[in-house]
Amino acid sequence: MAGVKIYGKPISTCTARVLLCLEEVGAEYQLVSINMPSGEHKGPAHLARNPFGQIPALEDGDLVLFESRAISKYVLRKYKESGTDLLKEGNLAESAMVEVWLEAESQQYNPAISPIVWQSLIVPKMYGGTPDQAIIDSSLEKLKKVLEVYEARLSKSKYLAGNFFSLADLSHFPFTRYLMITPYASVFESYPHVKAWWEDITSRPAFKKVSAGMLDS
Amino acid sequence: MASVTVYGTPLSPAVSRVLACLFEKDVDFKLAPVDMAKGQHKSPDFLKLQPFGQVPAFQDELTTVFESRAICKYICNKYPEKGNQTLMGGRDGGLLAQTSVDQWLEAEGQSFNPPSSALVFQLAFAPMFGFKQDPAAIEQNEAKLANVLDVYDRRLGESKFLAGDDFTLADLAHLPNGHILVSKNEDLFMSRKNVGRWWVEISARPAWKKVVEMQNAPLG
Asked: Where is the GST N-terminal domain (chain A) (predicted)?
């Protein structure tokens, strides 16, 4: 099977989500760098791949895809013969739980954590700006409420969708990885089951490999 | 015989998203009201169904599901032979068709939903519940939504529906917020030729009209 092309950057959270899936299934791929500072992501060539002008995008033959969670599902389905099953589509109840916790990541966790990472890391480091502490503080309060729910869930279940690692867990990696290099990493200390889950999933070889391409400070 | 229960009120956009899917799929269900004014959505019993304390929750003989888009996918997976059979890309479409639906459903969830939900709150729910409107939030979110609708307008100039030739979950997901926004400011959608054409078509679907009837039904 010929490899897929991913347009993005290894330090980008949403690109990392897709790279993780490719690494988990052991697929061959080519990462084509998009130059964000020069605005390449808003130029006509990239807009033809992702009309929202964002990274990542995937090319597989004639197929072009955007939205990292959709690309992730495509990769996992395409390479399901690899033996790595992170979607459980053969089981109605299990696949339902994968979708539930993937949506929880999308609609509850991500909106709380991404402003913290954006303000405390990306704004100063990429844009030379000043973090907006009010946004960070209100997002931290939201994140704590979400982590309470996760703590209760992970006290009963080894992973989010059940006793199996899935795309739902994987999807949380990129922004959490970056929270861990901000001063706000300590918020996880109050949620021991969440912390244990984080340590477990980050010990996976795929995570170590993708993490190595991300920012360290 | 309904083994399916949906918890919530049809006036909630997320609940109405699930109801639209159930009607499209011809799946019988029972609607169990959740009294949000009395805080029932934060009660211990409800939190067992939906740990974030939000509506909808969905229960059948097999499992309990929450998050409206996950519920819609579950309904499609559980009842592949019933009602509308192209909501997730159709049986012959295979991986490519399913992936296109996933992509545009993500676009709805990540790009359309945040600004449209903020506007729905400002334009509909704030006045309804006596909160003060925030003109800056309205302006910012209208601008964000305008950019998203510009992308949609180009896409819908090339494609009948968002994911392709068939109406799918990707289009359906837009009905709840779209319905409220068009009632408050029709221009947002209707000033864009292709978005307008698409909106008229998807909002005329019988399944959506049934949901709107439920929303307009007198209480009690």
From this structure: 2-83
